[in-house]
Specification:
CATH topology of the largest domain: D-amino Acid Aminotransferase, Chain A, domain 1
CATH superfamily of the largest domain: ATP-grasp fold, B domain
CATH architecture of the largest domain: 2-Layer Sandwich
Largest sheet: 8 strands, antiparallel
Mean pLDDT: 90
Radius of gyration: 28 Å
Number of strands: 39
Strand content: 25-35%
Shape: globular
Number of helices: 17
Helix content: 25-40%
CATH class of the largest domain: Alpha Beta
Structural class: alpha+beta
Distance between the termini: 73 Å
Strand order of the largest sheet: 14-13-10-11-12-15-22-20
Number of domains: 5
Low-confidence stretches: 584-595
């Protein structure tokens, strides 16, 4: 076994590897970019080495710099995690030449599976079933469009060297093929340095089922069962579970054997995942092989009781696989939900900023949180916006689902837009609860997942008002204690007046709805008035924004987190981002301000699509912005004229930057 390893990655996977290595008595070296100088994985490791500026191409993708860090620190092996250099055959070869163990498959296996086209040709020889499509080298756009016609629409254009949903477009009609191909190639070139694509039949209502495989250097290979990863947005997974609902023993054995055949065909060593597209009738097709550990590996660990990172370390150090196929068994059911800094209501656009408040659910025996960030850390525009992975286990799917709902109800994030409330709605809809799964579930269930803004309960406004009154009193007490005369009556907020009573009004807003809560100090607390209803209120606040309140004869628990003017209320499993209005401040014109369309997040301008002076319809593409390794098209908000652009292709823009001078047409 190794005595010291270097982790050539960041985020939750780096933290995960460090945790397992520490348990095995292995010293760890972290690498980090300037943006990650105070990142959690850097704080956890025994040593850390700066490898470059924030951009991944200048840091985490610099194999030469990472190898030098390994040599300098005496690391015997490099764990690549997933993403970055984990599937880079050149880096695996460079490690071998340097006499440093690459904790992953041999370069030949990465190379064989790195091209989706070449991999499919290899799988065809190994009798692994394939999706109908064109996987060849001819990349002429007219030829590819012709092949799409032969295959039959809808088709899927996929980056041959891709992964993680990048460089992938569904095309439903011939007229849309050229634009989708151009966008797909551009995104693939940016993400992988290779714009080669393949075209396949798009399977309607498919399930995405993958098989975890593991091989050793002695030629042995096993499969550790399957994961259902059908619930996706932007071709990226949001929920994963194991075992796959409805999987029969016969189908599991067939898919497992196909996955083992695929791995053995390339002499695979280490952890890998063979991904299949599965029809509702039980038939399945090889999609690709990820020659690395997957983001969703914890659900496999939860149902097998194994540590797959430990297996990686043992196999890479030359040991045999710890168990044989017949010794592996499934126990219970596990589900993983990915917690992202993104805004589901804005097309899942990534969000950046400081995690002002981050409280995951209590880590119990059956609830696990894998994360690379802590409260106070930044979500930057340079890397994937994942905050954490929330994994739960139950004796069966029903119990696991109940635990997931409970855990999401107790997950609190403030400071960035996030998908926690969306996930809570997602796992509650009947189609997911009843395991009616396919990759189009989110699109199909738009009405349930994106309901109109509903009425905010009166209790939420009252909770925010009471929390603010208690906060003001607490702040006043702290200031009084530090003053020269701490007992001065002028520093007390007890509502005393010489004549009459102290009355005030707190104004709160959520989107276009504003509520004014009247407050009068009483002998027992406060008398709050909202919409003509008066209630006696009292309470105490605790650490982390916890509020123990009593309204009349009702006692409730809530959390109210202060972040600038925001008062984020967490109550009964939901959250509301209320804003406290300063009634003495007169603001600007908001959305009525004339001028430019603004960037929804920090990013790089890829291309300007519309022509200056052109009259465009609502929804017409104006420009393309690239952020967090994904492309986002900025479209016209209404019919109008493109008066000019304030940016050029290649420009880096900040969140809220003006992009286009746009004038509405009459």
């Amino acid at each position: 076994m190794f005595s010291k390893i270097l982790i050539a990655n960041r985020g939750e996977i780096a933290c995960r590897v460090i945790k397992t290595a520490r348990r095995l008595g292995i010293a760890t070296v972290a690498v980090y970019s300037e943006a990650d100088a105070n990142a959690r994985h850097v704080r956890m490791a025994d040593e850390a080495v700066l490898i470059g500026p924030p951009a991944a191409r200048d840091s985490y993708l610099r194999g030469d710099v990472i190898l030098e860090a390994a040599r300098r620190t005496g690391a015997q092996a490099i764990h690549p995690g997933y993403g970055f250099l984990s599937e880079n055959d050149g880096f695996a070869e460079a490690c071998e030449k340097a006499g440093i163990v690459f904790i992953g498959p041999p370069a030949s296996a990465i190379r064989a599976m790195g091209s989706k086209s070449a991999a499919k040709a290899l799988m065809e020889k190994a009798s692994v079933p394939l999706t109908p499509g064109y996987h060849g080298d001819n990349q002429d756009p007219a030829f590819l469009a012709e092949q799409a016609g032969h295959i039959g629409y809808p088709v899927l254009i996929k980056a041959s060297a891709g992964g993680g949903g990048k460089g992938m477009r569904r095309v439903d009609a011939p007229a849309d093929f050229a634009a989708a191909l151009t966008s797909c190639r551009r995104e693939a070139a940016n993400a992988f340095g290779n714009d080669h694509v393949l075209v396949e039949k798009y399977v309607l209502k498919p399930r995405h089922i993958e098989i975890q495989v593991f091989g050793d250097s002695f030629g042995d290979c096993v499969y550790l069962f399957e994961r259902d990863c059908s619930v996706q947005r932007r071709h990226q997974k949001l929920l994963e579970e194991a075992p796959a609902p409805g999987m029969t023993a016969e189908r599991r054995a067939a898919m497992g054997q196909a996955a083992v055949n695929a791995a053995k065909a390339v002499g695979y060593v280490g952890a890998g995942t063979v991904e299949f597209i599965a029809n509702q009738d039980g038939s399945f097709y090889f999609m690709e092989m990820n020659t690395r550990l997957q983001v969703e590996h914890p659900v496999t660990e939860m149902i097998t009781g194994l540590d797959l990172v430990e297996w990686q370390l043992r196999v890479a150090s030359g040991e045999r696989l710890p168990l044989r196929q017949e010794q592996l068994a499934i126990e219970g059911h596990a589900i993983e939900a990915r917690i992202y800094a993104e805004d589901p209501d804005k097309g899942f656009l990534p969000s950046t900023g400081r995690l002002v408040h981050l409280v995951p659910p209590t880590d119990e025996d059956h609830v696990r949180v894998d994360t690379g960030v802590e409260q106070g850390d930044e979500i930057t525009p340079y890397y994937d916006p994942m905050i954490a992975k929330l994994i739960v286990w139950g004796v069966d799917r029903a119990q696991a689902l109940a635990r997931l709902r409970q855990a999401l109800a107790h997950y609190r994030v403030v400071g960035v837009s996030n998908n926690v409330d969306f996930l809570a709605r997602l796992v509650a809809i009947p189609s997911f609860a009843n395991a009616q799964l396919d990759t189009g579930l989110i699109e199909r269930e738009q009405a349930l997942l994106f309901p109109p803004a509903d009425h905010v309960p009166d209790d939420v406004w009252l909770i925010a008002a009471l929390a603010e009154l208690l906060r003001e009193r607490r702040v006043a007490a702290v200031r009084a204690a530090a003053a020269p005369d701490p007992h001065s009556p002028w520093r007390r907020l007890d509502g005393w007046r010489l004549n009459g009573r102290a009355e005030r009004q707190l104004s709160l807003r959520l989107r276009d709805v504003q509520q004014d809560v009247g407050a009068v100090v009483s002998t027992t607390g406060y008398q709050l008035t909202l919409n003509g209803r008066s209630v006696t209120a009292q309470g105490t606040s605790g650490e982390g924004g916890k509020l123990f309140a009593q309204f009349g004869d009702r006692r409730i628990h809530a959390v109210v987190v202060v972040a600038g003017e925001r008062r984020q209320v967490f109550f009964e499993g939901r959250s509301w981002p209320l804003a406290l209005i300063d009634t003495l401040h007169v603001g600007g014109g908001g959305e009525d301000v004339e001028g430019g369309l603004r960037a929804p997040m920090p990013g790089k301008v890829v291309t300007l699509v519309a022509a200056v002076g052109a009259t465009v319809d609502k929804g017409a593409p104006l420009l393309v912005l690239e952020a967090m390794k994904m492309e986002h098209t900025i479209t016209a908000p209404r019919r109008g004229v493109v008066k000019g652009f304030r940016v050029a292709a290649g420009d880096q823009v900040s969140d809220g930057a003006d992009l286009v001078d746009f004038e509405a047409a009459e």
